[in-house]
Amino acid sequence: MKITDFRAAVAPSHDEPRPDRLLSAHSPRRTTYEHYLSGDGAFSCGIWECEPGEWRIRFADDKHEFFCVISGLVRLHDEDGSVVCVAAGEAAVIPAGFSGRFEVVEAVRKYYVVYTEPPSAHT
């Protein structure tokens, strides 16, 4: 086993929010640098970047994400109307089953850790 060094170069993947989820006039480009993926695919981490924009999100019932903002500012809007702002140096967890809106106020760069629970955890 080797330590995963986030300074190492990895090939990025790019995407945009699905059109049916997009809430801003501009579709922001999202870039993911996945530095680590466990053999079973349950644990993933890396660096994620995104241009300003806003879209609806709905996390799967088995997917949790911890993230820490390196630069920029995001707002998470819960369906109940509450809003959490996360700026550079701050962190948050998006719990499994979360539904709401993800708003990138200032271009963001963040560390992310995604954990997907095994199927037996839901039965």
Question: What coarse outline follows from CA principal-axis ratios?
Answer: globular
Q: What's the N-to-C terminus distance? A: 32 Å
Coarse structural class: mainly beta
Task: Provide the succession of SSEs.
Answer: EEEEEEEE
- What CATH calls the topology is Jelly Rolls
The overall pLDDT, averaged over residues, is: 96
% residues in beta strands: over 45%
Major pleated sheet: 8 strands, antiparallel
Unreliable spans: none
CATH superfamily: Jelly Rolls
Helical region count?
Answer: 0
Helicity, as a percent range: under 10%
The total domain count is 1
Q: Care to count the β-strands? A: 8
CATH top level class name: Mainly Beta
Radius of gyration: 15 Å
CATH architecture: Sandwich
Describe this structure in words.
The chain has a single domain, classed as Sandwich (Jelly Rolls), CATH 2.60.120.10. The mean pLDDT is 96. The chain has 123 residues and is an all-beta fold. It has strands at residues 13-15, 30-37, 43-50, 53-58, 63-78, 83-87, 91-94, 99-116. The protein starts with 12 loop residues before the first strand and ends in a 7-residue tail after the last strand.
Q: Briefly, what is this?
A:
This protein is 0% helix and 55% strand. The protein is mainly beta and 123 residues long.
Per-chain topology:
Layout: E1 13-15, E2 30-37, E3 43-50, E4 53-58, E5 63-78, E6 83-87, E7 91-94, E8 99-116
Question: Which structural traits does this protein have?
Answer:
123 residues, Jelly Rolls, 0% helix, eight-stranded antiparallel beta sheet, globular
